[in-house]
């Protein structure tokens, strides 16, 4: 018996604005720029899976290695950190594109918005992401498991 990967193409009709309205290219750039402001930020490596791509008859297949993301071994920190940063920015009345890690963690920001406690319920990486970013931005987090 051979191990064979099977896949099915996504045939869902794409409707412009339905899935992209909340997070289109403009918002993706804001998220990328914000994440790059963390001192720990590094681009995650891509690993070529040439043999697998060849066996599937496609030009290339790459694995994005998120095991080093901010030292957390989880990609979910990106969503958690961006949501926390957007919330804090909105409380300040400033667009996230004008903020970075240092500004959000600054004593001036803390003085303006006070202590904020972020709460999540999770049994895994999302909670680690929320806790990590709260600590980075000098806020609090409670993670229910």
Summed up, what is this model?
With 145 residues, the protein is an alpha+beta fold. The chain is built from 6 helices and 4 strands, in the order αβαβαααβαβ. Helices cover 40% and strands 11% of the residues.
Entry keywords:
single chain, 40% helix, 145 residues, 6 helices, alpha+beta, two-stranded parallel sheet
Structure write-up:
The chain has 145 residues and is α+β, with helices and mostly antiparallel strands. The protein has six helices and four strands. The strands form two sheets. Strands 1-2 form a two-stranded antiparallel ribbon. The chain has a two-stranded parallel sheet with strand order 3-4. The protein is elongated. 19% of the residues are buried.
Rg calc: 19 Å
Question: What is the average per-residue confidence, as pLDDT, rounded to a whole number?
Answer: 87
Approximate helicity band: 40-55%
| Content of β-strand | 5-15%
The unreliable regions are none
| Main sheet makeup | 2 strands, antiparallel
Distance between the termini: 41 Å
In order across it, which strands form the biggest sheet? 1-2
Number of strands: 4
> How would you classify the helix and strand content by structural class?
alpha+beta
Please state the overall shape, judged from the principal axes of the Cα atoms.
elongated
Tally of separate helices: 6
- What series of H and E elements makes up the topology? HEHEHHHEHE
Topology:
Blueprint: H1 25-36, E1 46-48, H2 50-56, E2 62-64, H3 77-92, H4 101-104, H5 107-113, E3 117-121, H6 125-136, E4 140-144
Parallel strand pairs: 3-4
Antiparallel strand pairs: 1-2
